[in-house]
Write a structure and sequence with these properties.
There is one protein chain. Helices cover 68% and strands 0% of the residues. The protein is mostly helical and 152 residues long. Helix 4 crosses helix 5 and helix 4 crosses helix 7. The longest helix has 25 residues. It is globular and about 35 Å long. The structure holds protoporphyrin IX containing FE. Protoporphyrin IX containing FE binds next to helix 5, helix 6 and helix 7.
Amino acid sequence: MKRMLTMIALTVTAALANFANAQTATSPDTNTATSDAVFQDFGGKPGISKVIDDFLGIWQEDPRISDKLKDADVERLGSLLKEQITQLTGGPAVYSGRDMKTAHQAMGLHNADFNALAEDLQHAMDKNGVPSRAQNKLLAKLAPMEHVIVTK
Ligand code: HEM
């Protein structure tokens, strides 16, 4: 009888250990748990919307690259940028626009254009108090796009 109880106790202990392991395996890891931290640092959708609206305003006033917007559908560009930045920061959106190569290939953009645009975006993020850790996370996602967007 004693042996039987010991067996049951061991079985229960093993089952509990398995359960605990399964919980650990399926519970969100640190990355998943914090995956929308950058999105939250931007202030969620309203924050991103404000940053992009300000960014487009700053871009339109920037003599280095304002000409690039003269034939653009700025409203459409704005809503696609909001989608794209929401997705890139880990927020709930799926970018539905053209890929970066197709969207920019006819423009003959230079590195200087890219750098000017990145500066304008930083101004817009500063203006809205986006913490620098979140700014850097986003800029790190945009940087690899440069070699596709810049063709001159
Ligand atoms: C990381 C950098 C950049 C990102 C993330 C980006 C993102 C985008 C997105 C999402 C679109 C919309 C695509 C579509 O029409 O389906 C777009 C279009 C466009 N981008 Fe960029 N872009 C970048 C760099 C640049 C630069 C450096 C310039 C010029 C200075 C530029 C000028 C434009 C213009 C003029 C349009 C087209 C708007 C239109 O056809 O109505 N972009 N970009």
